[in-house]
């Protein structure tokens, strides 16, 4: 450790203390910022009044937020909740660069605008995207240049994207849906993308109204939020929108109808996975849209329903959905075992359960890993959830199986719009479900844990869920590195 | 092929390069009232490619991206692909163990993230020998201050105090750890370059920054429980992810049963600093130059927008 103080001086140096326990949130930035400025100015003015070290101890007298200038703050909510809002000035001495990091803007300033792209082949990796499965740690999905090429061609054939299109970029680009079906799709085909860096229903609606997009690609939660807002504000979406696509989670039929009526634009439901570079199945824009269906495979993808041995099942029968095509991943990064398990004869086994109807449309009914087995009988959590959702007070429902000794119990987690007893919900379930499918327990929740794409994170509801955000102390002792 | 369509199979990089040549003024990205053309997007991506190459990134290397939907995400993605490197975008809501797992597993050489993630990333660095560079962008820092909960401890020191950043983290971490123990939190522990925690929960945290040869150490200590609900209404966060935005926290009050008074905090901090840095600390006030700077910064902070 090289602290100057140890090596050079014998007499103790004097530092200054600035103590302000009841300042405001701007002081948290302005006090040290001013001392830093004083040091810098002092160097030029050769002022001797600046002390070598300053220690500031401060607190605030009122709740406050100190925000970077790029943070969107709801000032109305701030005054309603008595939150003082101060901003950190852009750049400048009050927003310093953390030690041992590089400033992006500085890197850009120094870099030339000319670059000859390195040559690549279609089978080179373009991206590793991590998916959090229902169990274990996120797996890296290997996506090649060819995977993306194939997906962009497939999606383009279905959605006919041209440079005249303007796509709403609200889905996060770090997720396969936004990365592939918005960023890649738009830029490969010369369209423009309207970036929405921070989602809120109000922000999204405002941006849609102002920018008049032609395509809206979003997740069910966003459609539901938009619908509520449109109804409340008694407005319609701009007529510039020619099409909307919903994916990542099911959007109930009633919602699609209500949204189409309210917005005046069609909503196509689709299906995709990180392993298929997003959409591989979609209701056709010019054909029949079937309620509750994920549509038909996109050009370049083949899909089929298989039994546990991987044999294709006849139409109408329920089994696992398998996908094949150039858009399908080459496998998981550094996980040959998982890759081998997920593929059979070139078909990728999705882990989703569903069936195909007489017209070739696919329907998803469940996640394979979520199927509850109770007394040897298979129970579909989705079926139980659907029944619970039909109760007027139930807002959201997630049903999981919990191990209890030798058997599995059905536990339903619900959020509600008003008061309702567990007993009432159970008798409601009994009216439409066979006895063995009725939940053994109902847990009332304030919110359900959800992913960015609006999927309920069921693994977080299980008893053995470990919060990955936590950092636990290693056993090797205090302050140790590893 | 007409300039109006891209029916031929062209990848993202070639497509953008082609649109930049054939329709240079056509808008690629719209962001907060600004229009970024295909030509400009291509130039920015070239700069990223050159910048990353300058940092030693080569074909096949992994470049991790932890950014929301801002233009920089697109510049970095395209620039990385131009180098033939592999992009590893990941969720900006990820914390601690999740980030560590992805960066370790992918063996990322460079990470590009928002400035506000710096402390979290810093904490993972000692365990990520492959991660050579962290590039930060954007002004999305967010700090919550609450009368009942937060105490800020800041140190401004001439830069030559800190020649060795690693050593400085170690020292400051142990001073904060000592402060927490003095305040009665016996179970507190410190992970190198990380936060002060009790079990898996954060009780104090700090980051060391530099500007023009000056070092600034910014620390926050949680004296009482921090109720973040009001804050998360102000910077709108969907209810279902609210508990993911903030790391699990605890406080002196939660650990010891009582919130320390300010005088006790002051005495404890000063004593720990005096001992740790071998200096004498006396209460003082700001001088003239500093007061000018202080007023200027405050007026910027509260400028109506």
Q: Uncertain segments of chain B of ≥5 residues (pLDDT<50)?
A: 1-6
Q: Please indicate the count of domains of chain B.
A: 2
Residue-averaged pLDDT of chain B: 90
Considering residues with a beta carbon less than 8 A from a beta carbon on another chain, report the largest interface and each chain's count: A-B, 164 and 183 residues
User: Main beta sheet of chain B, described?
Assistant: 5 strands, antiparallel
CATH top level of the largest domain in chain A is Alpha Beta
CATH level-3 fold name of the largest domain in chain A:
Rossmann fold
Q: Give the spatial strand order of the biggest sheet of chain A.
A: 10-9-11-12-13-14-15
Number of beta strands of chain B: 13
Plain-language structure description:
The complex is a heterodimer of chains A (482) and B (305). In chain A, 27% of the residues lie in helices and 29% in strands. Chain A folds into 3 domains: 89 residues, no CATH class; 241 residues, Rossmann fold (3-Layer(aba) Sandwich), CATH 3.40.50.12780; 91 residues, 2-Layer Sandwich (GMP Synthetase, Chain A, domain 3). In chain A, strands 10-9-11-12-13-14-15 form a 7-stranded mixed β-sheet, with helices on both faces. In chain A, strands 16, 17, 19, 20 and 21 form a 5-stranded antiparallel β-sheet that branches. Chain A has a 3-stranded antiparallel β-sheet with strand order 7-8-18. Chain A is globular and about 85 Å long. In chain A, helix 8 links the parallel strand 11 and strand 12. Chain A is α/β, with parallel strands linked by helices. Chain B is an alpha/beta fold. In chain B, helix 2 packs across helix 3. Helix content of chain B is 40%, strand content 23%. The longest helix of chain B has 18 residues. Chain B has 2 domains: 126 residues, Rossmann fold (3-Layer(aba) Sandwich), CATH 3.40.50.980; 133 residues, Bira Bifunctional Protein, Domain 2 (BirA Bifunctional Protein, domain 2), CATH 3.30.930. Chain B has a 5-stranded antiparallel β-sheet with strand order 8-12-11-10-9, sandwiched between helices. Chain B has a 4-stranded parallel β-sheet with strand order 4-3-5-6, with helices on one face. Chain B is elongated. Chain B starts with 11 loop residues before the first helix and ends with a helix.
